[in-house]
Design goal:
658 residues; alpha/beta; Rossmann fold; sialyltransferase cstii, chain A; 3 domains; four-stranded parallel beta sheet; 49% helix; 11% strand; globular
Amino acid sequence: MKFTKSQKQIFDKNLNNLLNENLKISLQNIKSSSYKVVIGEDSLDINLKKGDDFLYDNALQETLSMQQIYKQKYIFYPVLYFFGFGNGILFKLLLQNKYLKHIIVFEQDIEIIWTIFHLVDFSKELKDDKIVLFDINHSNTNSFVLTTLFRSIPMRYFLRVYFLELSSKYYEKKFHQEILDFNKKIAEIIHCVILHNGNDSNDALIGINQLVYNLDKMITHPSYESLIKTRKVSGNQTAILIATGPSLVKQLPLLKEVQNKAVLFAADSAYPILYKHGIRPDYVLSLERVVATARYFDNDFKEFDKDIVFIFSHLIHKQSIENLEKNNRNYILALRTLGFSDSLGLNHFGYLNECQSVAHLSFGLACMLNFKNIILIGQDLAFSSDDGSTHASGHVYGNYGGYTGKEHEIDYSLKVKAYGGKGEVSTRNAWNIFRITLQKHIVQSKYFGITTYNCTEGGARIEECIEEPFLQVCNKLLKDDLVKGGGLTPFCLAKQNEFLLRAYARIFKNLSIAQDIKKQIIQIKNSIINSLNNINNANEEEKKFIFEYSFNEIDKLKKIIIDESCLSDMFQALFYQNELNMAKLYVFNPQNEAEIMQKKIIWINTHLNYFDEIYGHLNVMQNSVFENLTPFENIIKERKLSKYRDKIFNKLALKLQG
């Protein structure tokens, strides 16, 4: 079909306001469409035909019917998701709803968008980000892009009410399998985003306790920041990241041969295995806060450990540190970006990258050290297709289940694409989340000229990697022996003392902030409850006032809680889970006055329960921080800093007693 001059102008107007640059380029490159336009008497009656298939059986009737359904059932949804752009008319109609902020559209055949862009003006909706378009065939609509989308506001708070609608039956007929596969991918990413924001506030409490307990160790050892500054490499050097998937063992003979030609980053669980095979890693990294990981270091490898740097998260369990120290290993504790740790004024010690697993930790460090080639081995992220094993032979906790010991709970139902793209392999939810996050990091690293090779030769496919045999990549990249290492020294004694006292003061400041929040929770909660006690005897005007007052007080207290960044890691999981639950209530469309009243009461009571949880967590946090301050108190006493400590303590102690 040839378009008129005015239709071409509409197309150009739409294209100029399209915010997705990759889609814009793809649409510009289309010169003609295989779809025939069929327009009825009504301006909303726009249909497309390809071969014998129409986009709609009755475009006008189906569009108006869908509009009516959404008015009745989904009026309070702030974001809606559609597979297929269709004729786009439904989106313009739905966006008349003031509650609807975004319509996200995933299109399989962008010729449809190209054709409709000539017929309907969407320029305002596109410019205002009301209609957001994705070409799901384009490489740029990858896990990283989709994760970013679902982590955005308001999308992130409404993930539990997500559903994917089809714009017309045409899409079901033509793209049935593609829809299933794409929706499965989205479900995995949503699960990942929800877990990333925290689903267990007790983890945060444990983290704060172990941070406080480990602080003196971090301050008196070399910093992560200094390691990055002194050991940043130049040229086209290669890092090998060693995980403990079932496939690792077959790579060990070659790894032993090339160990001096690359820098080796080992997961904590790989460390004892490498020792048994005479392979010395340059870095051993550990992330988990559980005591079980301490067993990886409950050994004495003597001279083998001489040049290894052990890098741990500041959240690591104290037993891991004790096992390192009793065998005189060189270690560093690095910060994770969390509210409590950020508030202590210890930025000089450096921050780990965003990490859910030790693989992410290793990858981030390799990137920060400027390695241009990163090789992954043992990164199966799946059960072995041979015997169902979960870990490499020689693993401290055996081949099945790892330290969790859950081999009896293995479920093979979750399938993902296999390494090499041939068939599928079984995986676990956690591994799949790790894989999706790793893919995001790999995409980001490409902007810095970093190439990632997956030489695992087994397990799950990791998108964005080059899949090649380990031998082939070694022959290509590893030529000469490297000069490794470089001295690492802690801060001078005076600087350490400064950091110790600063951290001590800010810990007590955080505790006093927690005390203030507790007081405000009691005050505001009691005020709301007193108001609600009068609701049954109130007239309509008084009810309106009581509800408005309660909603405003709830919003005020939520803001107080959210704004205290020093406690954000503890609040994050509670806050996010509360918001996810409230989203279900928010989108509910009451049909009468009784349901409206019930919705408001449930909204208020749910928030009051949430505030009770916050109060309880603050209590536990305050008590446990005091219990874990002993090592800190001891080193302050040993260094004759008690008079400064007493000054800090006395200044804030009275406030904490209030």
